[in-house]
Amino acid sequence: MSMQWVLTMVSSERANELEADEEALSELICSIEMSAGFHLQGEATHLSWTWNGIDHLLSRIAGDESAPLRKAVTGGREFGVSDQGYGPALYQDASMVREIAAALEATSSDVLRSHFDPVAMDEQGVYPSGIWQREGQSALDSLIESYAVLVEFYQAARKSGAGVIQAII
User: Whole-model pTM?
Assistant: First the structure.
């Protein structure tokens, strides 16, 4: 089974409830549908296998470890104590979501394209390893498509004043 990255919007009140109830947190994370294609599903979405490629590109663009772009995919505080598949869930409060949304909006898909280096991605073991050179333009197209969903997701979360819970399952 492959690693899938899921994320959902939550109010701060709901986040407090979920942090105190590991079972409810796991149920919420597991309820995010792994449908074909990349799209918002109400207040949740997934980036399927593209999550690490997007994280890699955003990290190359941002450089600085503390930059909001670096936090979009793997940022936030550990949330809850249980392993959701590949580690604990992460939580980003509404303030962090606003910063991330602004940084994503300022980063066009053309900027992502300009940092796409499939040889380096394969050499560095960016998940899923081996796909970047083999799939080339098709892999890049999938990254760009899922990046658009990521931007849309964070815009919606910012607009609603929500925090974000994310996990790799």
Answer: 0.91
Cα angle value 153/159/162 (rounded, 5°): 75
Residues 12-44 have pLDDT tens digits of 999 999 999 989 998 888 887 665 455 566 788
Domain span at 75:
5-168
* Average model confidence (pLDDT) across the chain: 90
As for how many domains the chain has, the answer is: 1
The per-residue DSSP string of the chain comes to ----EEEEEE-HHHHHHHHH-HHHHHHHHHTS---SS---BTTEEEEETTHHHHHHHHHHHH-STTSHHHHHHH-SEEESSS--SSS-EEEE-HHHHHHHHHHHHTS-HHHHHHT--HHHHHHTTPSSTTHHHHHTHHHHHHHHHHHHHHHHHHHHHHHHT-EEEEEE-
- Do residues 9 and 163 make contact, with C-beta atoms less than 8 angstroms apart? yes
In CATH, what number is assigned to the domain containing residue 64?
3.40.1760.10
